[in-house]
Amino acid sequence: MASVYRPERETDFASFQHATPIVIDNGSSAFRIGWAGEAEPRVVFRNIVQRPRHRSSGETVTVVGDTDPALMKYFDCTRSSVRSPFDDDVVYQFEYMEYILDYGFDRLGATSEVSHPILMTECECNPSFSRARMSELLFETYGVPSIAFGIDDAFSYKYNQKLGNCGEDGLAISCEHGTCHVVPFLKGQPVLEACCRTNVGGFHITDFLRQLLSLKYPYHSASITWEKAEELKKEHCSIALDYMSELQIFKNNKEEAEEKTWHWQLPWVPPPKEEPPSEEELARKAALKEKAGQRLRDMAAAKRSQKIAELEKQLSYLEELMEQLDGAEEQEATSILGRSGYLSQQEIKSAILKATQSLRKAKGESNGNEDKAEASGVDKYPLVSVPDETLTPEQLKEKKKQILLKTTTEGRMRAKQRRAEEEALREKQEEERRSENPELYLEELRARYSELTDKVEQRKRQKLNGGQTNGNYSSSGGVGRGERLNAAQKERMRLLTSAAFDRGKGEDTFGMRDEDWLVYKKMSKDNDDEDDGNDDEESELARIASKIQEMDPTFVSKTEAVQPTPEPPKAQTLTAEDYRISIGLERFRCPEILFQPGMIGIDQAGIDEMVSISLRRLVENESVKERLCQSILVTGGCSLLPGMIPRLESGIRQFRPYLAPLKLVRAADPLLDAWRGAAAFGASSKFGRQTFSLADYREHGENLFHRYNIVYSL
Amino acid sequence: MESEVVKTDMVLPLTLGFKKVQTADKYPKGQSRGRQWKHLRYLLQAADASSLPPDRPNYLNIQSPPSIYPPKRYCDITGFEAPYMDPRTKLRYADPEVFKQIRMLPDEYVQRYLALRNAAVVLR
Q: What is the complex's ipTM, to 2 decimals?
């Protein structure tokens, strides 16, 4: 809907005499207002009210009728929806009715007063409270002198009778917005005793279509508005002559079904193709990355130099302190010590040692440590080579310790050497084997590699699953609710829960034994990253991988290959097809609810059956009924659906005697005939006798309406 | 108010010369009016059922009765004739293909499909 029809304000309101009635066809879908005696209503708009908030001023405003979506951007409609004063076909919300009447009279050109009689349409057997409230509204708020209410279908029938479409006795089938009616007419007067109503109408068709489509295409449910569904209904929906065979076509005959299917292409813009980044872009990004890295490195360097400076300062201070102490008397020394905060010279010494070590570490000389220690191995154990006899018992003890230390270090050294030798030997052997038969060697390496990877994988898996191997291990390592905890985590949870809920029955003995406290250690999170000692395997794996790589440059180490997290599956790019909404069976399924209201859960007879109900209710003989059936008028908005008349005919025939005459006619203009009939009625001389005034209403009150029926015959 | 909005006369003026009682006086601003309307069904019960003689036509008794035909069952998803009903979701379905589909449906959609024929579970 590019442009929405907004009625212009009429200018000739003042030129009408006060006796000229204003005719209002107050239908539940459209409000039509005009002057009695004219051929067309002056103003027509959809009978809806919206009360959105004006965005800039914050006021709640009232908007009547269809609105231009382009203009709705100025309004905040989140808290208000489209309202109708109608429930089914009865006006029951008179606040909204007032807004609509305001707008209607305003568009008709009223300025100072509405002092014209009003002829308003209503539904069959409109409840008297609705009539009463409506008259109150018209009398008190608009100051109209007199009112007449008439049934829209009756006006439509009378108008078509005048056109010759139907006879004096007949039947009106009216499929309106909220309801369907069947009304028999005898001598031009509706027989309300025999009329019947089913609460299904055009609104339900549109709503059914909208809901079906938005359920079928949840992705596009925002595009499937009520207005759009209404448009689709008017354009594409039609009534199947035989719904069951239509279903069969759609179920079994693909080609024919495809022919009957309409497609609605939603606006779709192909997504812009992502171009690979240009050289410049790449260079720029690399430069940026490099810059950032440089900054981080600079920061780290600055921090390190700062730390070094600090340590050096501390060291020099400590050394100075030592010198002072060395050169000082005992008393002075204690005072110096007291000032420095160290307890003894020994402590200062250890502090110096510590400082030098950390300084060395900070300067990056930590690697050299071990070698130096080894180099100074001889100096470290001065007592070892000294014979026992020359030593004091304390020194002896010291010597024993030193011997032990020495042997262990030597042992370690020897083991290291041996390992290195073994390594070299193995390397050599492998080298030989390799040169002997490279193919076989590579094969062996590969086998070993896969074996090891399996092992490592399995260990990881076990760690993750707490030792249980459940078949559907997923390598994604998801974080879902169902993710299993590993064994350590499970144990921790168990301990935590037991600690939380075990409020000791009886005596609390916790802490009696020292081991009790170990629980806390077990509970602490640090336990999680226990090393399972599979380092060996992993290093071996790395070694083999590098070897294989040496020989076979195409080989990719599994750990390397797997390590980068798998990229999330890219959302499939949507094509024009995804933006196409197909209306196949829905074209027939939605209007079918008029004939089978049970499809949307309304337990009432469909419109074809309603005719037989209405005829049954009519207390007349068969010949009259036969006469009625020869003049059936189909009116109301839904009668515009293609296929309506043939379907109704076949439906009604099933209830009529064999070969009984049947004639259906569609109203000349199903939408406007009611207004036209009313306008003709309002212009007749008899109209004045059918109205009631404020005085009448005051006298009788609501009782006035219990027996209120106007005489339609002119 | 924006000029385009004013030009189309979209917004109903607050005061209209032809009215005897202005809307603003009838429904004063700032007062919470709440839901002062009642459902049609309630109004009908309150008004007509008691005061009207049953032999005369009124809004309630002109309603059509249920159809004399046995109701046909249609698949909630496809609209085809549905010989089966899923006991879990209570959705009717036409064939095993649709059955697979309805078993995949999230509950919200099941309820929406059921609501189409007024069979959804209404939680109050």
A: 0.90
